[in-house]
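User: Fold this; tokens only.

Assistant: Input:
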Amino acid sequence: MKIGFIGLGQMGKAIAGRLVGAGHTVRVWNRSPEPVKQLVAQGAQAAARPADVAQAEVLVTMLANDDATRSVIIDQGVLAAASPGLIHLNLATISVALAQELAALHRERNLGYVAAPVFGRPEVAAEGKLNIVAAGDPASLERVQPLLSVIGQKTWPVGDRPEGANVVKIAGNFMIASAIETMGEAVALTRAHGVSAGEFLNILTNTLFASRTYQLYGGMIAEEKYKPAGFEAPLALKDIRLALSAADERSVPMPFASVLRDGLMELISMGGSEDDWAALAKVAARRAGLSS
């Protein structure tokens, strides 16, 4: 399949690499050139500008936030340059409002649009084991499913409205951040009473909370190892703000989301902008008067 790919951060680079490795023709663009060079070395083609990659059967985008998505996809003429019948597969976590806007813009141009945000860290993406939440026109989703099968272990369809997939992803990231915050506060409590983080989390993540999320982030908290980040604190803050915005739109109270927003802001103010979001535990330790 002829694929255009925009956005080669840690996740995007791993996903694009999977598509190249599966034998697809992949033309890539990224704001910084180094990831492009790495993908070209694997067999991808480089594009000089974003609009060039829209001459494809499927355009895949993995951009950091709403501003980046709007700037590249809308303002730099990507949609205007799209091949007839192109399907845009957007893997990024964006706001509900932008998802709705993009869906409308694609309908106006008779282009397909599938929102397919992913759950998983870069190392999971490199193994093709992401979980993908997908929503959009069923025919478009069927056409891109072979690509989703290359990058993910399972696709979870949630209807024909693209914003539905983004709501699921935003809510899911809220739950992960909540788990991290809960572990951070619980560790602060047990440490204050002389029980180490490792001892406590070893018990809880192998009994009551024996799941990948708790074990992964619990291990990072126990070891206080927050670099290199799989998901940096500013990106987590962006997603919590998206949750609050979506909640405000429908008058849904989310008091704990406000706690998470404030904690992430505090973490970043402490110099943690390059830390993994698991470093929320450092904020809990600081509040308790404990060194992290």
